[in-house]
Amino acid sequence: MNKRFSGVLAAVFLALAIPAGSAHAGYPEKTVSMVVPFPPGGRTDLVARLVGQYMSKQLAEPVVIVNKGGAGGVLGSKDVARAHPDGYTLGFFSTAVVTAQYTVPTPTSLGDYVGVSVVNIDPMALAVRQNAPWKDLKELVAYGREHPKKLRVGMIPGASAQIFAAAFAKAANLQVTYVPFKGDADGAAALAGGHIDVHVAVPVSYNALVDAGKVRMLGVAAESRSPMYADLPTFRENGVDLVIGSFHAVYAPRDTPRDVLLVLENAAQKAMRDPALLEQMKAAGLGHASMNLKESAAFIADQDAVYREVIEAAGMRVTPR
Questions:
Q1: Cβ neighbours, 10 Å, residue 130
Q2: Prediction pTM value
């Protein structure tokens, strides 16, 4: 056999023997961009910068946060969906990537992404002012049922907080009056001032006001009590069957090669086990999660179903079914 032909044939057999996706075995070889679809300074941006810092240690390449705000998180999310699926453009999305599918006229689609790792979960919390007459959630619900539409509930229109409020009212069988605010800080301040009766957000939104003795949290809509708020009962402990909250996850564009996804999964998992990161998240009042690809896919699909049901029941859906 011709030696040159033999060499070519050997090279072909060698190529066929290489496992699928190994062409990306050197990944990553340059900076990885992680798009946050909101302006700097918010909770999503904070979590992304913490997680990105520790993922970069695991990847041995910089992970640079790119803020691309607009349209309630849709613009930046769509940039990630359109990116080349090579692992160098990732998304760091909040629950908004799920809800926007139904509440935004030009929505995102979960099918455009792969959830690499869910890294943060915070349950919905319900708070009242410090001197409110209800000592627990049961008393609040009893009052609300006896006084339809009397309870003034603060929330952010079009955001997770509106869905939280609607989910609470439905689960507790209440008719309430919704009061809109631009952000959680505005609503929490109005609660402390007695301008509304109830406010819903994630627990960290109330920490400063709780410490100042101005508001009280009555419960969290979690499966079990949070280690950070061990004295705070769940909604279910108070007779309200509701588990709902917000979460953050690292996403890659659809069609990202499997071997690249596995590298990212490993980096995220190791980052989320770093004691220094865990301490920083705890100090910031942020819940911790560390899900792999399979767990993330199941969790995100479950959250999609929960939010879709609440959005449709509340009449918030703007996209066709």
A1: 15
A2: 0.85
Tokens at residue 320, please? 């066709």
For residue 220, give the 3-state DSSP assignment: strand
Neighbours of 26 (CB within 10 A): 7
Assigned CATH class of 125-238: alpha beta
Checking if the pLDDT of 138 tops 80, the result is yes
Whole-number pLDDT of residue 241: 95
Tens digits of residue pLDDT in 17-33? 333 444 456 899 999 99
What is the spatial distance between Cα 295 and Cα 305, in angstroms, rounded to a whole number? Answer: 16
Phi, psi dihedrals of residue 155, rounded to the nearest 5°: -160, 175
CATH architecture for residues 31-121+246-313: 3-Layer(aba) Sandwich (3.40)
Q: Edge-to-edge, what's the strand order for the sheet holding 198-201?
A: 177-180, 152-155, 198-201, 125-129, 215-220
Q: What is the DSSP string of 58-75?
A: HHTS-EEEEE---GGGHH
Q: Please compute, for residue 106, the number of CA atoms within 13 A of its CA located in the half-sphere on the CB side.
A: 9
Tell me whether residue 170 is exposed, middle or buried, using C-beta atoms within 10 angstroms of its C-beta: 0 to 12, 13 to 18, 19 or more.
Answer: middle
DSSP category for residue 124: -
- Cβ neighbours of residue 306 closer than 8 Å, sequence gap 6 or more: 244
Strand pairing partners for 179? Answer: 154
256 pLDDT band, cuts 50/70/90, is: very high
183/295 Cα distance (integer angstroms): 31
CA atoms within 13 A on the CB side of 117: 24
